[in-house]
Amino acid sequence: MASKKKYRVLTPNPRMYVALNELHGLWSDENKIIETDDKNIYDYLLNFSGFQDVSKL
């Protein structure tokens, strides 16, 4: 079984919260990274100013 691709996004600040809807959201870790395996969430996060793709690092 192939593992899902992990997308990694660098946020401007550590421990940053991004609301996905009224009930759910994601926190960045102490290294300013949010990890997700959902391509739609990944694309959504990259729309914010200061958010960068670091999936290949």
From TrEMBL:
Top-rank lineage group of the source organism: Bacteria
Name used for this protein in its record: Uncharacterized protein
Organism from which the protein derives: Gottschalkia purinilytica (Clostridium purinilyticum)
